[in-house]
């Protein structure tokens, strides 16, 4: 006999019966048949599909009972049913092999024999009547001469039937027919009706491809209907169960609660008596394990060894699941036996199944060598098919267990194909102990996001006499800060300040050497004894790599973004002591921090001091920070006195920007700086300054105002992406204003002899400049000012902003000298 189908007990109670006991029970013939044998009769009658109970009896008398009842026992049951003496008959139904369901009475027994409940029979009868009436109506129309109309209605009728009974295709290409749950009425029907509506959608699954919305809504409607369905699980058709499983078990990034849903659905299917397929049983075990029932899931896995563990189609998945679960549960010996079974079988083995075992063994120091042997076995089995990702996983496991030496050896194996062995050595070979080799490993660890592992490597290598370079540690600090985790930010600050202390030690030692007379041997701080360098309050690991300007820049940016103005001031004090010249980046962060702290005057003073006294060359980010420090960009409520001061300061910043020797380094600053300048001057009501700034940026920046920027300037809105009601109204008004100005410009062109409808690219750019200046004059309420009246005012403003030669005189030499675009080589001009 075939083995008994396995059933997972999700209610944590064992119902396992061995095959020998089942065989012995089948051979026994009781003298007094128990009542549950009636179920076998009802199942046989249901398969025979008689029209009544009497027909079922005749069927059972005429043919051998397929359920295994002999003729005498069947006649005894029939006589008991015809006896006038009232009997307490209990009706059962066999819903699955070895599983029985108690029926409520004879009416439900008759329904189970017929296969349809009253609601479905009524629906079928109504449908038949409607179809007959429709056919008669079409025949009458044909007799009365409406042949064309009858043919059209007949086609529409057929199309409607096809749509109503159109099937669905699951994610695994399963075909499903009409999906519906019936048999519920009253208030309890509402959640079931909602679930039916969801299942009836043609867009739920189209072509076997799921959408994220399908998964979320499937669980939404099913979870709402679970309480009602639990009162009569048997009314849920098997097709609905399979379809729900196909959706909720989808392996998709948009299905984060996949295992929780599978665990609940499997319990419901077991309560409904629906047998799980082999693949479903494996997934249900995994879901049970992940949901916290680890011991129960492993017990279920053990019981399935005869069924799932011996079938070719489930053999590999079964044993791989057992290896993973046993490793996570701590039963490494059983996991190793399962892996051996898999690797020694006739099936094509995958040695990567040893990776969970390596992780479990490396977690315990007593089994660390076994973990290493398992890694070597895996590498030997895979051979040339071992990928870089396999090494990364093994290295990550060793690093997570704080076994840096084994992780380094695995990385050396990856780089040198196992030709070098570094385990147990006090000093590493030169091929390993160099910045290039170590840098490649740290870069890879940081790239895959193993930041803590990279830090462990830094600590371990320094203990072996190999110090990481500042570039490598700055990369680790930057990755920690970008992660945003409070723990990582704290680690980044600790490492950065440890590097700063190493820099300060180096500076003090250099001063000590300079103050001494005569010849003296210079001792590098890397070689100083640990007792000299360690003091109270310092971390356990004292980094010997000295900080650079980039280290200070990373901390400065972080403190500025977190608005830690006091820490930033402290950092700059230490910067002077470390004798590292401040860079434009550090200056920009300091300007931003003072501006955010409401100390705009101090920010400008720092800018003056650093550029004039310390000779720091500003860049585009410097002037962006300066324009953002003006009151019109900081304060919600405008102050007229401050706005007048902003006009003076803004023109001075613009003059400094033109004189400074810098170029744009990123496309973002090239788009952001002109926009900020125009918005700042318009908000400060410096209309002539806005016109001169636009003309100067046209020459120096090759600035072309896009139409979106014109709409924002016309509306005064900060962004087109803010969808508030007030902002949308302002944007609509601004768009109308720009369209009116463009129409006026086209009319002027037509008056001068231009066609107006067809324009070149140069003419379109010129139109945008003209519209920008007309918009500024419109805001200044000076659109009727004649050019000869406006010219002297613009010339005076150009002199004040330091662009008279560029805007008024159009001096090509001055334009080329002060251009802020990157200079191209002569061969690329």
Poorly predicted tracts of residues: 1-7, 10-17, 22-85, 161-165, 518-538, 824-829
Termini, distance in Å?
86 Å
What proportion of the residues is helical, as a percent range?
A: 55-70%
Going by helix content, strand content and strand pairing, the class is mainly alpha
Q: What's the shape?
A: flat
The fraction of residues in strands falls at: under 5%
How many strands appear in the DSSP assignment?
4
Strand order, sheet with most strands:
1-2
Number of helices in the DSSP assignment:
39
Query: Mean of the pLDDT scores?
Result: 79
PPR repeats: 583-618
Biased composition (Low complexity): 42-55
Protein name: Pentatricopeptide repeat protein
Region (Disordered): 41-70
Please give a structural write-up.
Helix content is 63%, strand content 2%. With 829 residues, the chain is mostly helical. Strand 3 and strand 4 form a beta hairpin. The chain is flat. The termini are far apart. The N terminus and C terminus are likely disordered. It comes from Canariomyces notabilis. Belongs to the PPR family. P subfamily.
Q: What can be said about this structure in brief?
A:
The protein has 829 residues and is mainly alpha-helical.
């Amino acid at each position: 006999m075939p083995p008994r189908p396995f059933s997972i007990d999700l209610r944590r109670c064992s119902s396992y019966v061995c095959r020998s006991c089942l065989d012995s029970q089948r051979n026994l013939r009781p003298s007094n048949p128990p009542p549950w044998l009636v179920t076998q009769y009802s199942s046989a009658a249901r398969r025979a599909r008689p029209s009544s109970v009497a027909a079922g009896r005749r069927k059972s008398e005429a043919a051998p009972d397929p359920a295994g009842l002999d003729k005498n026992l069947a006649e005894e049951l029939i006589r008991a049913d015809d006896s006038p003496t009232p009997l307490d008959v209990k009706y059962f139904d066999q819903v699955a092999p070895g599983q029985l369901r108690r029926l409520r009475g004879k009416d439900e027994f008759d329904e189970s024999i017929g296969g349809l409940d009253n609601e479905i029979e009524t629906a079928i009868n109504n449908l038949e009547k409607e179809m007959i009436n429709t056919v008669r109506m079409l025949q009458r129309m044909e007799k009365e001469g409406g042949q064309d109309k009858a043919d059209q209605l007949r086609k529409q009728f057929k199309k409607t039937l096809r749509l109503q009974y159109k099937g669905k295709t699951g994610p695994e290409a399963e075909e499903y027919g009409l999906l519906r749950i019936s048999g519920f009425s009253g208030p309890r029907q509402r959640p079931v009706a909602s679930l039916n509506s969801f299942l009836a959608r043609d867009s739920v699954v189209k072509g076997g491809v799921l959408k994220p919305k399908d998964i979320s809504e499937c669980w939404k409607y099913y979870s709402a209907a679970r309480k009602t369905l639990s009162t009569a699980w048997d009314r849920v058709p098997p097709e609905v169960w399979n379809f729900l499983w196909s959706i909720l078990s989808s392996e998709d990034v948009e299905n984060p609660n996949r295992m929780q849903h599978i665990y609940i659905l499997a319990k419901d299917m077991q309560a409904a008596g629906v047998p799980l397929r082999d693949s479903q049983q494996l997934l249900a075990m995994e879901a049970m394990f992940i949901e916290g029932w680890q011991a129960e899931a492993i017990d279920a896995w053990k019981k399935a060894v005869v069924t799932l563990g011996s079938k070719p189609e489930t053999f590999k998945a079964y044993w791989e699941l057992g290896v993973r679960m046993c490793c996570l549960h701590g039963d490494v010996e059983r996991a190793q036996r399962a892996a051996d079974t898999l690797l020694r079988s006739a099936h094509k083995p995958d040695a990567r199944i040893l990776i969970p075992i390596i992780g479990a063994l490396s977690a315990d120091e007593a089994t660390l060598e076994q973990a290493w042997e398992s890694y070597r076995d895996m590498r030997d089995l895979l051979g040339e098919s071992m990928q870089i990702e396999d090494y990364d996983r093994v290295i990550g496991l060793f690093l997570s267990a704080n076994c840096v030496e084994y992780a380094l050896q695995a990385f050396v194996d990856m780089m040198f194909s196992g030709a070098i062995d570094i385990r147990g050595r006090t000093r590493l070979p030169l091929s390993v102990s160099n910045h290039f080799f170590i840098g490649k490993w740290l870069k890879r660890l940081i790239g895959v996001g193993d930041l803590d592992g990279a830090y462990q490597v830094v600590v371990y290598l320094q203990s072996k006499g190999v110090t990481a370079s500042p570039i490598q540690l700055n990369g680790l600090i930057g990755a920690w800060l970008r992660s945003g985790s409070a723990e990582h930010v704290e680690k980044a600050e600790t490492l950065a300040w440890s590097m700063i202390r190493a820099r300060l030690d180096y500076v003090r030692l250099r001063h000590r050497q300079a103050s001494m007379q005569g010849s003296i041997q210079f001792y590098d701080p890397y070689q100083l004894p640990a007792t000299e360098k360690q003091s109270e309050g310092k971390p356990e690991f004292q980094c010997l790599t000295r900080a650079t300007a980039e280290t200070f820049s990373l901390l400065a940016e972080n403190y500025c973004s977190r608005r830690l103005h006091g820490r930033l001031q402290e950092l700059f004090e230490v910067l002077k002591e470390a004798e590292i010249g401040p860079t434009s980046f550090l200056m920009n962060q300091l300007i931003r921090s003072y501006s955010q702290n409401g100390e705009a005057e101090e920010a400008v003073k720092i800018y003056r001091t650093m550029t004039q006294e310390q000779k720091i060359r500003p860049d585009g980010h410097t002037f962006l920070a300066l324009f953002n420090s003006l009151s019109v960009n900081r304060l919600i409520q405008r102050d007229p006195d401050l706005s007048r001061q902003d006009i003076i300061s803004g023109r001075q910043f613009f003059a400094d920007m033109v004189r400074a020797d810098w170029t744009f380094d990123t496309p973002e600053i090239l788009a952001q700086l002109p926009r900020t300048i125009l918005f700042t001057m318009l908000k400060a009501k410096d209309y002539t300054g806005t016109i001169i700034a636009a003309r100067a940026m046209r020459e120096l920046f090759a600035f072309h105002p896009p139409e979106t920027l014109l709409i924002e300037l016309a509306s005064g809105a900060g962004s087109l992406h803010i969808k508030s009601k007030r902002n949308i109204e302002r944007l609509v008004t601004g768009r109308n204003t720009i369209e009116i100005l463009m129409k006026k410009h086209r009319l002027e062109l037509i008056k001068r002899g231009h066609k107006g409808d067809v324009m070149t690219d140069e003419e379109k750019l010129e139109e945008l400049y003209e519209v920008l200046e007309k918009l500024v004059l419109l805001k200044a309420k000076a659109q009727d000012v004649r050019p000869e009246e406006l010219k002297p005012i613009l010339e005076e403003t150009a002199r004040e902003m330091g662009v008279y030669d560029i805007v008024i005189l159009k001096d090509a030499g001055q334009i080329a000298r002060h251009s802020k675009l990157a200079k191209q080589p002569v061969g690329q001009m």
